Each structure stands twice: as C-alpha cells, then as structure tokens.
Amino acid sequence: MENKDLILYGAGGHAKVIADMAKGTAWTIKGVIDTNKGGEHLLAKYPIYLKTENLPLYGASRWVVAIGSNAIRKKVVEELRGKPFGIIQDKTAIVSEYVQIGEGTVIMPAAVINVDARIGKHCIINTAASIDHDCVLGDYVHISPNASLAGSVSVGEGTHVGIGATVIQGIKIGRWCTIGAGAVIIRDVPDGCTVVGNPGKIIKQRNF
C-alpha cells in the first residue's frame, strides 16, 4: 500500500488551504517545514518544524511544496531533489480520468480540468479555475482562482495566470509570463511577458 503520509514545505496562506483540503483526501499531514517558523507555531493543527529539525517519517513521506510563488517553489523543489512528491486534489474538484497530472501539483476546491489536458509538475490549479480539453501546462504554472482556459491552450513553465483571467482557445502563452487579473488573452504571448487588460496588451517583456 502506498504511504499516504505528507509533509508540506511552506507555512503561509497557500499552505493553509492545502492543509485544509487534505483533510478530505487519503493524505495524512505529518508536519510542516518553514525556514522562518518553528517551535510553538502551528499551521492549523499541524506542527511547524525548521528545515534542520527532525521531522516524523522524514524519509518515508511524500512532499508538497506549498508556496505560491512559482520561482520560489521551483527553487525549493530543486533543493529537495530526490524526494518523492505527492499530488493533492480536493474532493470537490472535477478532473477527467484522461488528464495527466505531474508530481507535486495541487488542485484546489471546485477546479475543473477536462479530458486530455496535461498538467506539469508542481503546478497550482487554484479555486474554481477551469482548464478545458487538450490544454498543456508546463511545470510550476499557477492558474489563479476563477481563471479560465479554453480548449487547446498551452502555458509555458512558471507562468502565472491571474485571478479571473480568460484565455481563448488555441492560444500559446510562453514561459515565465504574468497574465494580469481579469485579462482577456486573444493572441499568443511570448516568453517573459506581462499582459494586462481586455483585450490583453503586453506592457513588459524581460529577456531570458
């Protein structure tokens, strides 16, 4: 039988939501690691340990990096290289059995992911986000609450799609982009762009 003990790395607001929704799943949270907290601090009812402290079932558990920042989440995952990562899906999420989901990804309450979508590693599919058929998300992507991706949209590594944003079908969004809250994306977006407004307009692009 697979070990369903879970360790969260991070003790902020995002981690609170993950801890809360894990109660309705087969996962059992054994503890939380945060480099800035420890001792008497708790995340909900769960103890918080400093990174250097001994953690119950340290070697046997699965991990989820519960940090909202895509860049920081990637950095921590790289520091934890070799650790086994879990996938947490809230009991109210609707996910087709034909969806591929990478390790470390969390799917929040009321999210919908439709048939033949592919979700990368360590992604956040946030509350009531909608991802339609045949979408492809790279690693470390964050789809914010109430954001909607129509069919066959692709989103590159590390991109953050803001709250309530809408992306029409077939659009390609590059790596490490920021799509502003409420933006409507009707054209492809190159790597490193910040896009806001309706229709979406590129206001900044950084070089890689």
Automatic annotation (TrEMBL):
Domain of life: Bacteria
SUPFAM superfamilies found in the cross-reference section: Trimeric LpxA-like enzymes (SSF51161)
Domain PglD N-terminal, first and last residues per copy: 5-80
Xref: InterPro entries: AcTrfase_PglD-like (IPR020019), Hexapep (IPR001451), PglD_N (IPR041561), Trans_hexapeptide_repeat (IPR050179), Trimer_LpxA-like_sf (IPR011004)
Gene3D superfamilies: 3.40.50.20, Hexapeptide repeat proteins
Organism taxonomic ancestry: Bacteria, Pseudomonadati, Bacteroidota, Sphingobacteriia, Sphingobacteriales
Species this chain originates from: Sphingobacterium thermophilum
Protein name according to UniProt: Acetyltransferase
Similarity comment: Belongs to the transferase hexapeptide repeat family.
Signal peptide: none
